[in-house]
Amino acid sequence: MSASPPDLANLKLLMLVAELGSLGRAAGRMGISQPAASKRLDQLERRLGLRLVDRDTRGSALTVEGKAVCQWAARVLDELDALLAGAAALRGELETDLRLASSMTLAEHYVPRWIGTLQRTSPEVVVSLKVTNSEQVAALATAGEIGLGFIEAPTVPHGLAFQQVGADRLIVVVAPGHPWARRTTPVDLAELARTRLIVREPGSGTRETFERLLSGAGAEPVRPLMVLDANAAMRAAVADGAGPAVLSAVTVREDLAAGQVVEVPVAGVDLHRRLHAVWAEGRRLTGAANALLRIALAAGN
């Protein structure tokens, strides 16, 4: 069986069969003939090596395998919608109804979905998105150059109005072959301060949060092992065994699930942090900016 992914339109067809209970009605919804839809479904079943739909004169019903594939397909298509919405926002440069900026972690895992929801309800809204670190997002918001920003910094700078839109947790991660992966006791802040770590660039919310925790414990960090300006680069460096790093749990969840990195427990400190939407103080959010903030709050990340 080929390892190439199934056609996305075929996955959409499967979901419509599940929703409508009829291959013919699913074909009509997609604007194709029933024979064409049947051919598409056959292609999907061959691609996956599974029987997905039982078809008879009374209609079409998903098999147990088909129901499982349908659930996974829904997640795939949701992620695709988020990707397309995020890419469209990144392309926006001139005519924009809503200018956004976001820190890296929020831009990678949350903001595109919020934009996708906004554009499904308000397709006329044009959005642009700048991805940078929390310090730069705050500066853009203070200057009034964006309508709304999203940051993960431990504090919100003066001159900004803000609203918490979620929370996440920082974790220490190492490669499976690192000595810390086999230790039976947690590390503490003093040990982390003495260890040369892979860190983000100055201005990153992740780095600022961690350094404030060290400072609050009276610990001064040694010189970093590496300074990288992207979460993806940090993940790759950790997985390759370069050294430990402190990253958002959501950033490395797939690496953890795949066994490419290992979480190291940390003693004596709460590594949870708040995620905030920010905008210029004294400015009332209206229109698309207010709608996007409501979407972010409703998502409850």
Would you kindly provide a written description of the structure presented here, covering whatever features stand out?
The protein is α/β, with parallel strands linked by helices. The chain has three domains: 8-75, Arc Repressor Mutant, subunit A (Orthogonal Bundle); 84-166 and 274-299, 3-Layer(aba) Sandwich (D-Maltodextrin-Binding Protein, domain 2), CATH 3.40.190; 167-273, D-Maltodextrin-Binding Protein, domain 2, CATH 3.40.190. It has twelve helices and eleven strands. The chain has helices at residues 8-20, 23-30, 34-48, 64-91, 104-109, 111-121, 134-142, 189-194, 205-216, 231-239, 249-257, 287-299; strands at 53-56, 59-62, 98-102, 127-131, 148-151, 160-174, 198-200, 226-228, 245-248, 262-264, 272-280. Strands 3, 4, 5, 6, 9, 10 and 11 form a seven-stranded mixed sheet that branches. A two-stranded antiparallel sheet has the order 1-2. The protein is flat, with a radius of gyration of 23 Å. The two termini are 38 Å apart.
Characteristics of this structure?
single chain, 301 residues, alpha/beta, Arc Repressor Mutant, subunit A, D-Maltodextrin-Binding Protein, domain 2, 3 domains, seven-stranded mixed sheet, flat
Regions with little confidence, pLDDT below 50 for 5+ residues: none
Largest sheet, in brief, is: 7 strands, mixed
CATH class of the largest domain: Alpha Beta
- H and E order: HHHEEHEHHEHEEHEHEHEHEEH
**Tally of separate helices:** 12
Protein structure class: alpha/beta
**Any idea what the CATH superfamily of the largest domain is called?**
Periplasmic binding protein-like II
Helix content: 40-55%
Give me the CATH fold name of the largest domain.
D-Maltodextrin-Binding Protein, domain 2
Count the strands?
11
Second rung of CATH, namely the architecture of the largest domain: 3-Layer(aba) Sandwich
The structural domain count equals: 3
- Beta content comes to 15-25%
Overall mean pLDDT stands at 89
Q: Based on the structure, what is the oligomeric state of the protein chains?
A: single chain
Q: What does the radius of gyration come to?
A: 23 Å
Distance between the termini: 38 Å
Question: What is the molecular shape?
Answer: flat
